[in-house]
From TrEMBL:
Subcellular location: Cytoplasm
Keywords: Cytoplasm, GTP-binding, Hydrolase, Magnesium, Metal-binding, Nucleotide-binding
Domain OCT: 357-440
Name under which the protein is recorded: GTPase Obg
Cited CDD domains: Obg
Binding site for Mg(2+): S173, T193
Assembly and interaction partners: Monomer.
Positions in coiled-coil regions: none
InterPro entries for the chain: G_OBG, GTP-bd, GTP-bd_Obg/CgtA, GTP-bd_prot_GTP1/OBG_C_sf, GTP1-OBG_CS, GTP1_OBG_dom, GTP1_OBG_dom_sf, OBG_GTPase
EC numbers: 3.6.5.-
Amino acid sequence: MAFRDVLNIEVAAGNGGDGSMSFHRAKYMEKGGPDGGHGGRGGSIVLRAIEGVESLERLVGRRKFKAPNGAYGEGRLRQGADGEDIFIDVPVGTTAFDEDTGKVIADLVRVGQEKVIARGGFGGRGNSTFTSSTRQAPRFAELGTPGQKRRVRLELRLIADVGLVGYPNAGKSSLLAALSRANPAIADYPFTTLSPILGVVDRVDERGAALDERFTLADIPGIIEGASEGKGLGLEFLRHISRTRLLVYVLDVTRDPVEELRQLQAELRAYDPTLLDQVALIALNKVELVEADLAQMVEDELAEFGLPVLRVSARAGMGLPELREAIFQMLPDRELWAQNNALEIEADTVREEPLSVVFREDPPLKGPGIVGTGAPERVWEVHGGGFEERIVRFSRYLEDAAEYLGNLFKRQGLYNALKKAGAREGDTVEIGTFRFEYFDEDSDTE
């Protein structure tokens, strides 16, 4: 199966079911009371992190996900069934971004972790809810709200404790194989590693017995100059480095390790400057191929970077116990690291736009059949405050719900805001596509 670490999908949660407008009917009971039940909640779209999946490839072929709507409410106070939630199983380490805002909406770093990325609509309330001392038989109900729709970009960032970073042929795959139980393809040509490979490294005692400590090691595919600009394979996999707690720069002592490290850090800085703040060390590889004096000279030159340098040979097994122990000693605490590097997740709340009232003067109507032009129409546009959302939920029953909405709007300060803005009796009030006439009257509230 091919490795895929970026995938764009579209998700649509289910709409909430409409509330029922119903009255009780029974033998010998000509006029029963309102008994409309509530609509069901729409199904949500949920990301779920699971084990055994190492790529987003399994989702290819299905780019759109739609959850069921909630069922309508019914008479006799029967509530509509909720729509079933749809779960999208993804690898641990998957981050979800809202394509339109660019904000992080989910970051799954533990097996079993779940996050709603598109919330189902709320069910509407049945007419039984709207009874009062003055409204014994409400002939209206509430409609369900639409489910959330989103275009989402999924990015897989491998969860590994340590990342091996280096240019092609630096010996990263050989080092991974020598330190861990992984068996990567190893050959003497660039880009042998076409996808990140994970291995597990156990801590051992002086006798070689495994202790109850381990870390995961990731072989990040070889970076080339210009990787942060999309050249080679680097850009596709640089994102995986951001998940590691410690970086190991793997340098080939037979080349120009000082210049290579300088270029590697330049690529990391160009992609994400914070990567250079991570704990790191240098594994100077292939030391079996040079004299000890040359290896020492290179090590002295690398001192300018301020990082520990360990001479190793993945092929000959030289320096591997010391490298393994140095990594264990330097690894930051997992919980503390996670707290300091947690991504900022977009709050899963609906931010209600504040109420504002805008005056607009429409020109008088003109055209064939219109007698006289009259005066311009005074119109007040209402924005925010949740009023448009509320009135939409009664659009099917606006005439019957007018009294209820009028009282509701008065309690929530709409009429007071219009009056302060200078609205006059007979002016038109516009809420979205709905229009009604303003009247200045201190009517009784419920």
